[in-house]
Amino acid sequence: MERLDLLGFLLITFNCNVTIVGKIWLIFAILLRMVVLLSAGAPVYQDEQERFVCNTLQPGCANVCYDAFSPVSQLRFWLLQSLAALLPSALFCAYVLHRGAALAARGLGLGGRDAGGPRDLPVPDLSRGYVVHLSLRVLTEAAFGASHYLLFGLAVPARVPCAQPPCSGVVDCYVSRPTEKALLALGQLNICQDGR
Question: Where do the domains of the chain lie, and which CATH numbers do they carry?
Fold first, then answer.
């Protein structure tokens, strides 16, 4: 029964130190972002390089033009963004559980003092840690939003002119499903902007 009380105390400590907006953001922005990426993003980007067609037969030209067009896979970038956005929340959860477990250990008499157990302990105020956590989360989202804009821009063009060294002159390359990719990109940027 004491173990259940300890678990309840830790859950109450976490619940009292996270706002309802933070809980909703964590559920919708992280889980919904992952579901959208895996269910909608994976089919759109699975044949990304194979469907990038250039109007030349010059060997290596299409590969060089694709690398110039997309230096980083957008899908992998968004997965990294989702994991990086989850990291401050995971660190805050570990901090809350550590502080709560240390307080509960003292309350159970494990620290040399005898108290009535977790039920009699006050819930610690970890609001400073929560503010630090929110600041890290917002900075992470802003950094990834700016990086996305610098790497990819806001739109995905249907036709990309390319004049990289193995190509002879300016070559037109065509991107597969540019509208779907642009909508996914805007959706990812909107999630990171709204999720504060």
Answer: 2-194 (1.20.1440.80)
